[in-house]
Amino acid sequence: MRPLHTVVLFAVLSLTPTLIAGAQGAAQVPLARVASEANLTYKWLVATRALQLSGPGIVLVIRPGDNLYDVNDRTEVTADAPRYVSNDLYVSQALANHITHLARQEQQLIASQDLQAASEAGQAQDAMGGEMHGTIVLNVAPLEGAEALLVTGQAPPSASVMITLLATLSSDIPNVVLSRHNLTAEPDGKFQAIVPIAPDYMRDSFIHVLATSSPGVISASAQLLVQAPNNGLKVPSETFPGGIW
User: Fold this and answer.
1) Residue 154 pairs with which residues in a beta bridge?
2) What is the pLDDT of residue 241?
3) Which residues does 140 contact at the CB level (< 8 Å), separation at least 6?
4) Which of 30, 85, 155, 196 places its Cα 20 to 30 Å from the Cα of 62?
5) CB under 8 Å to 61, separation ≥6 — which residues?
6) DSSP the chain
7) pLDDT exceeding 90 applies to what percent of the chain?
8) How far apart are CA 164 and CA 222, in angstroms?
9) What is the pLDDT of residues 39-81, one digit of tens each?
């Protein structure tokens, strides 16, 4: 009987690594499920071999086998590198929970900003003794030397104006909300602000700028193409002499 016991023991020991690997794989979560539960858009970036999850106020880029991943304009680290399995990326439950938390945090922040803007607009309307009427005139231009826009315009005197930036990153995904900024027009109706375009630094993508106010005020919009901060400027260090080296 001893030889039989030895064979059984050897078989169990040989299966142990497989069982452990299966348990580790089961502990990971597919990002397609995470995106669905967190209301994020799921998209493969073929050119960079990465997976993008995007939603209002947030864009995440995650790469198979890489512990580093991008969240908007910053980089974070996960203890367990994502694994590519069956045309999806699998991540640890901790990272899945963190992604869901980040997405919901941004959604709550935007909802809170919308509620605050609506409240401020209502207060301004009450202060004026009635509904405001008029039209917003909007001018937007890239701020030279910066990843930002110079926003100027005209609105009804002392009206609250919300500037919303949206990005069109691809024809396959919905527009992404980049940021919202609350302004107040001067007594003469003029307003001005420098608005960063973060986190959309992708060249040749579109940024839509919306200027809205209270219901009685006609909104305005503009669209720009993202280009280099110093587009068209020739810097000596970037100019290489011709000829054969």
Assistant:
1) 137, 190
2) 63
3) 149, 150, 151, 152, 209, 222, 224
4) 196
5) 45, 48, 50, 51, 52, 69, 70
6) -HHHHHHHHHHHHHHHHHHHHHHHHHTEEEHHHHHHHTT-EEEEETTTTEEEEEETTEEEEE-TT-SEEEETTEEEE-SS--EEETTEEEEEHHHHHHHHHHHHHHHHHHHHHHHHHHHHHHHHHHHTTS---EE-EEEEEE-TTSSEEEEEEE-STT-EEEEEEEEE--TTS--EEEEEEEEE--TTSEEEEEEE-TT---TT-EEEEEEE-STTEE-EEEEEE---TTTTPPPGGG----S--
7) 53
8) 11
9) 999 999 988 899 999 988 899 999 999 999 999 989 999 999 9
What per-residue confidence (pLDDT) applies to 201? 84
More confident: 39 or 232? 39
Distance of alpha carbon 46 from alpha carbon 208, whole angstroms: 25
Residue 122: both structure tokens together: 């209502």
pTM: 0.46
| Lowest-confidence segment of 24-38, 151-165, 185-199, 229-243 by average pLDDT | 229-243
In this prediction, residue 23 carries a pLDDT of 42
Long-range contacts of 93-98 (CB under 8 A, 24+ apart): 93/27, 93/28, 93/29, 96/29, 96/31, 96/34
The token duo for 18 is: 């497989």
What is the model's pLDDT at position 130? 59
